[in-house]
Each structure stands twice: as structure tokens, then as C-alpha cells.
Amino acid sequence: MGDVARAVNIAELRRMARARLPRVVFDYLDGGAEDERTLRDNVAAFRRWQFRPRHGEATGAFDLSTKVMGQNLAWPMLAAPIGYSGLMHRDGERGMGRAAAKADIAYVMSTISGTAMEEVAATGVPLFLQIYLLGGREAGEATLARAREAGVKGLFLTVDTAVAGLRERDLRNGLVQLMGRDIAAKLPYLPDVLAHPRWVFDYLMGARMTHLPNVIVPGKGPLPLTDVASALARSLVTWEDLAWIRAQWKGPIAVKGVLTGEDARRAVDGGADAVVVSNHGGRQLDGVAASLDALPEIVQAVGRDCDVLMDGGIRRGGDIAKALALGACAVLVGRAGAYGLAAGGEAGARRAFAILGADLMRTLALLGRPSAALLDGSCLQRRD
Fold first, then answer.
1. Any idea what the CATH number is for the domain that residue 35 is in?
2. 55, 196, 211, 280: which is the annotated catalytic residue?
3. CA-CA distance, 137 to 135, in Å (whole number)?
4. Strand-pair category, 253-258 with 221-224
5. Taken in order 269, 153, 159, 301, is the CA torsion positive or negative?
6. Distance CA 250, CA 168 (A)
7. Residue 221 has what pLDDT?
8. Strand pairing category for 380-382 and 49-51
9. pLDDT digit string, tens, across residues 187-224
10. By three-state DSSP, how is residue 74 classified?
11. How many separate domains does the chain show?
12. d(Cα 11, Cα 373) in Å, to the nearest integer?
């Protein structure tokens, strides 16, 4: 754990995660779809913008607080939903929840988790739930009822998974085979896994994901992990589903996976309180716009009618500042926090959030903007 405490940037946490994890797990976390063009472009998009600082300004006390979907947050960031977090570290979703709580940010927990939402809510973190309609609407009703009882603050409905993206690293590494029941099919992929005995021990002593405790299929119980892919293929989320969820859920709802002004407007008209500009971290349709590049169109389309968040490619606090300057009210931090979790569990995730927070504070100071609310287009210029 001392190593993660000494990490000075997210890239160092990524290197630590790569060393600790079997290739199949690291590539699941790190990889994208097809040629991974969108994955790379998410990061590169931030380099297309330069800061325009104002010097000689007395900044005084800094105010980085914001309000997202009715929830007051000390920082304009939330921990993003990461499926299979228990594969990355035995601390899993509980560790991420505790880290987010200590960082004074919120956590959007994935449906595809090995930990019950009630256990994560017990960490004291402001908890949101990202949902798919796995198991159909009947299973969805039970999930929503549990979320209400657990004190979940709001829902993030993901709409960009009509089918799973073609993640070629996962195919090469045998992810499906290793998570399946066929022992013979696992054998070609086991040497790399067994070459990481510390991870194997932690996995066997920790999460050992076999089912999704937050998806209870009527008459069958928790959805088996081996059935997730087929269940996702049957659970295309439509605008009619948004209307149905809006009728079931009285709290705030965000629609995640929006890349066009048309879809953003439709989400708001359908009852969404927020939209998340997202290409699923480059893991779905390769060749779409980087999230940051799509952000201005979404902001223009919805105006002040809803909160606009974004994710994808955030590796520095300066990246967060650029997203806020282009109109986002907050960002979802995905891989950056997950690299920390994979490198050192809860302590690693805490370190990732601390790095980003310090980066953001320093960026505001050097920009001469004492408040995140003062970040706007005047802070940026497009690189030639």
C-alpha cells in the first residue's frame, strides 16, 4: 500500500495495476472496442484545448463544490460505474465506495457488480445506481424497490449497449472462457493468471464473483455471471423504457451514453434530470466522437434544462477543468479510479481521487479562477 501512496499521477497507478493484474483482467479494464480509436481519442481530445490563464488575480479561498441531480458535492466529480470491480481487487465496490466517501464525492455503482447495493450504501457514500434492464422489467422493479430502500440518490440509465462492443483484447485473452464453466476451455489461458499468485489469492479470498446480487431474476434468483452477456443482448433500453422507469422512480434519473444533441433533447423531454456525454470509454462503437468533442453540442441542445455530465479520457485534474469550462457540471471518473483500485484497493482508489483533486485545485489557482463555477469558454482556446 505504501507504493500507491507515493504515486504522483494516474499513469503511475496504471503501471502498478498492470504489474499486479493478470493480463486478461488488466486488458478488460484498460481496453476498448475494435481498433481502440475512440479509446485513444478520448484522451487526445483534451490535448486539443489549451488554457488561457488570467494572472495577477487574488484567488482567496477555493470553492469546488457543485450540485448534481440534487446532491451537493464537495468536488465536481463522481466515481464512474465499473463492472466486475471485484476482479480488480478484493475490496471491489465496497472499497470504491469507501474511497469515494472519504474523498467527499459520490459513487455511481454498476449493475454488473459482485456486491449488494445495500453493502455499498452502508459505507456512507452518496450512492447512485447505474442500471440495465437485465432480467426484464419484473427484475427491474425489484431492483428499483431495493434502491429506494437502500437510500440510492438517483439512477443512471445506460442507453449505448444495444449489443456489446467488439473488445478484441478480451477475445485474445479468453475472458469468456475464463469466466465460463468449461474447465478445458480455460486451460490455454491459465498460465498468465497463475503467474500472478497474489491476485489469485486475493480473488479466492475476496469477491469471487459468480452472480450479480443486484439482479434478481423472478423464479431463478441472482443472475449468474456466465449469463450476463446473453442477458445484455436481450435488454436493449429504449425511450419507452425511460418512460417506464420515470413512472416507477420518483428520484432523479440520468441518461448515460448520449453523443448527439437530438438524443440529449429526447432524454430531457422523456423526463431525465441529467445526461451523461459518454461513448462508454471507447468500449462500444469504435469511431464515434470523443466525449469532450461531443460535449458542446449536448450543452447547446439542453441549455439549463438538465445537468450535463461527461466521462471518458480523464487522467488529470486539468482535464476536469476543461470539461467544466466546456459546460459540464461534473465528470465521471472511471479508469483513473479503477487503476487505483486495481493497484492498491481502497487506498489506491483514494490516492487516485486525491491526485485528481490536487491537480484540479492547482489548475484553478494557475488559471486565476477561485471557483469551479467561474470556468467557462474564456478559459480555453482550441489548439491549431
1. 3.20.20.70
2. 280
3. 7
4. unpaired
5. positive
6. 40
7. 86
8. antiparallel
9. 999 999 999 999 998 888 875 677 889 998 888 888 88
10. coil
11. 1
12. 28
Q: Contact, 85 vs 337, CB < 8 A?
A: no
Say if residues 211 and 203 touch (Cβ distance below 8 Å).
Answer: no
pLDDT score recorded for residue 57: 72
pTM over cut 0.90 = yes
Which of 202, 200, 201, 204 is closest to 190 using CA atoms? 200
Choose the weakest-confidence range: 2-6, 45-49, 68-72: 2-6
Cβ density class 306-340: b for 16+ within 10 Å, e for less: bbbbbbbbbbbbbbbbbbbbbbbbbbbbbbbbbbb
Mean pLDDT (whole number) for 227-254? 87
Mean pLDDT of the chain: 93
Q: To which residue does cell 469468456 refer? A: 176
Domain with 348, as residue range(s), is: 2-382
Distances (CA, A) of 11 to 8, 79, 239, 355, 356: 8, 18, 38, 11, 12
Q: Tell me, yes or no, if 211 is annotated catalytic.
A: no
